[in-house]
Amino acid sequence: MGARKRLAAEARKEKNSNLCVARLVDNRTSPRKTRLMADLVRGKNVEYALNVLKYSKKESSEKIRKLILSAISNWQTKNETVRVEDSDLYVKEIFVDGGTMLKRLRPAPKGMGHRIRKRSNHITVILGSKTTEMEAVEATEGQEQQEENVNQIEE
Question: What is the mean pLDDT of residues 88-106?
Answer without folding.
Answer: 95
